[in-house]
Amino acid sequence: MALVPSRPLEWGSAPHPGSVARGGPCAPRRSLAGALCAPSLALPAMVVAMFVLGVVHVRAQASRIISIIPATTEMLFAMGAGDRLLAAGSYDRYPPEVERLPRVGALIDPNIERILALRPDLVVMYDTQTELKRQLERARIPIYSYTHRGLADITETIRSLGARVGVQAGANALATRIERQLADVRARVAKSPRPKTLLVFGRDRGSLRNIDASGGLGFLHDMLVTAGGADVLGDIRRQSVAMTTEMLLARAPEVIIELKYGRSDTAAEADLHVWDALPSVPAVRNKRVYVLQGEEFVVPGPRVVLATERFARTLHPDLFK
User: Fold this and answer.
1) What is the pTM (predicted TM-score) of this model?
2) Which of these, 14, 65, 174, 302, has the minimum number of CB atoms within 10 Å of its CB?
């Protein structure tokens, strides 16, 4: 993940249930020649220098951080920078230590006044929050822009964010561990048949209306493939696909997995009976319709390994006895 000088990195479009980002402003420029010709002016230890196109950009490590994104909040705690967080977003729930932090809004309702009052030296925010970005730039508060993308981008973001914050060792170790664990899951299912799978992340309760499913883009699709499934909508290059009954019958999924993001939905299992209305669908006929609950399915952060393993256990139960 390359760091681009002079402005926050921009990476993709609006966030969706499925992704990842990077970036952050740079400190005032210093010429490469000036830096090299003044050996007596030693840089402090708490400074990160970046050499890009012959220009040195110097940025102090961040120690007063606000993260309003659940994924990046989890990343910061997991890489060992949780004690640097001043505040978190309204929907940040993990790890449990985040509960002690004050809340400053989220994607559509950031509390700009409170953010400014906390005097952060870095705000981790969605790239699409243009008004918040404008206000922070006016106040000369550094930002790190985040955008959802695919599975591989999660570890790229961890490394980039860790470098920006100044905990590269912890971030690199975390990213490497996640990549190794995902590779282990991939290897374990490699020789097994891949069932055609439909991932559903939304529909009307008690009916098969307004079904939203994962298409062939995004971290949900990538996790499913890593876990040994064949995405029945993989040819549709979108993160979200609105399904119709006709599409369900035509695609004929062999496995249907519904995702529930709340901490507990006791009625979710009982609601699966609505699929019985489509007995010709192989997943229904063979009783392979499941519900998986957990915030790890909507937060593309360090728990992505847990989510991928749960997919793999559902798709290939014989391999995980």
Assistant:
1) 0.79
2) 14
